[in-house]
Amino acid sequence: MQHFAPQTQPAQETTYSLRSRQYRKPARRRLDDEDEASSPPSDAQLDAQSDSSDHPSDSEQAAQLRVAGLLPRDAAEIPPKPFPHAPARPPARERLTSAKIRECLAELDPPLFAVDATSKGGPVGGTGPTPELRQRHLGVLTTVLHRCLLEHDYLRAGRAWGLILRSQIAGAPIDPRNHRRWGIGAEILLNRGGPSDTGTNPASTPSETELPYSETGFERAKAYYERLIVQFPNRKNAARAVDNLTFYPAMFSLWIYDASERSKRAKRRLQEDGDAEDLPVDDILPQAAAIVAEELAQARQIADRMDQLLTSPPFDKFAPLLHLRGNVGLWLSDLVLQTGKEQLGESKIWEDESMEEDRETETHPEQLRRLAESQRELRQANDSFNRAQTYGDQIISEITSTEARLEEISSRIAHLQGT
Question: Are residues 218 and 357 both part of a single domain?
């Protein structure tokens, strides 16, 4: 029994068996055709048909029949060409195929049907390397794949996924985009060899300060998305196909998650170490600043890659990617303001107390530089949100929130410039 969606496209599957074909309703004909088919032919029509068959219109053929000593009504018994210039060919032998055997068995009284037949052309008894066995083999591999994924055994899941991709149905390879299974390859590459891979080390479980995957796994998953982007480019004649318009948001989302999670867990680990060793704040601040600076560098790298992509079609009008670029702009704006704060944990960059603290610990030029950079990122985010809304994405709340932040930053800049 098939428990999961098949690995093939619907066009590669056989849909009707011999028995189902016999019980299918015939196509409805027009009323005029039914009247003509139901009414018997008249005598005049029969005479016209006999006259047309007895007296061929081709005079040359009639002359050849007279020379051969044959009547016009014997024309149907003449062997086809190349007779009389060459002997007549013997009739072709009818091949006894599995489909013919099924038809002969179905014509018996009572009819017999092969219980394991899934198509009219399948062999009786299901013997031999048939598409039915391949489908069954793929079903077993798919079940093994999902079982290994549920048990976090990514090593064996990768082997099953590799066997599926190397299989062929009717001479065509398995497409990883079928039923949107392309994400399985990224999940396997991301987690294989990491702390969550119980197939390699059952005793290892990731802690709260440790990522469930390794840095090598992230690089493998990112390279996997890059290959899919190159292998399946966008085509205008296949508007609904899964192509790089689908893979780019997935790759950027994974990249953003990796950068933010690494920074968050590093801050948590630093906080725990500082509380355990009772370290002074002055010793912790440089390490915290380095963590924020690393996250800011990753965010800028992501934003630069997205800006290069959004300058060319069809990505310049792709609403999901524009929406994601707006969120990256908000993320950058927060990180720029966090680089000047002298505290750990959750930042409160939009409260007056934090602003006063920044003003006390930084010079006016440094504060103005950070606020101006944050304002620039917010304007970029607002522009991306407006473009995404223009091309079909409903994000009114994000636009309103971004505009409120812009007003607050502008007022803060005006206040610093006036002092």
Answer: no
